[in-house]
Amino acid sequence: MLCPFCVIGRFGIIIFRSDCALSNLLIIADAPTAVFWDTNCCAVPADLHFIDVLHNIKRCLHESSYNGIVKYMVYDSGSPSLIDENPPVENMVITRFPEGGDPFEKFKKIFVDIMEWSIDRPVPANILYISGETNPHMTGLINKLGMDCYNTLLCVRDSLAAFPTNGRLPLVTRDFHFVRSVWSWCELSHGRPPFFNRFSDKLREGRCS
């Protein structure tokens, strides 16, 4: 099933229907957003605290017109003080893994949590995936959710300068066909706008190196 806001263009390329873009934005503005954050791939910056980053993520979402409830799913395996020194946050679930453990176990947990959340939360809904690592399984899942009309957002570890572009599109979007916005971790953690928005006319020059 193809998202009704999309059509098949030339050569089988999936594109967003411009006449539906505004309607889609209005629908998802008040929808809930789930944030899946791997703190080891995208660590808390040295100049910020854990709570600051959570607030900045929410600020970025609100400034991008995502005004619904935000739920944080945090996955950590090496920073016990990161959690213990901060007060509890509403709508946050922290899953801890042994330091030096099998990275696949964490990936499997994130993958299953995204699947279960999407089953429990029918569209409209937004999903922000924060990780410096991707693989064909996660790419396929994010794309499948996009085809099912979930609004998918992405945060990558590196800045825009690390991504070659094809015209106005960073090549990271070649794999994530439906992702609406892409932040670098430096930008998102500090509350700055995404370097890519599918409905913007051009790439924004990032401030992070």
From TrEMBL:
Pfam families: NYN (PF01936). InterPro entries: Marf1, NYN. Residues 33-153 form the NYN domain. PANTHER family: LIMKAIN B LKAP, NYN DOMAIN-CONTAINING PROTEIN. This is NYN domain-containing protein. It comes from Brassica napus (Rape). The lineage of its organism: Eukaryota, Viridiplantae, Streptophyta, Embryophyta, Tracheophyta.
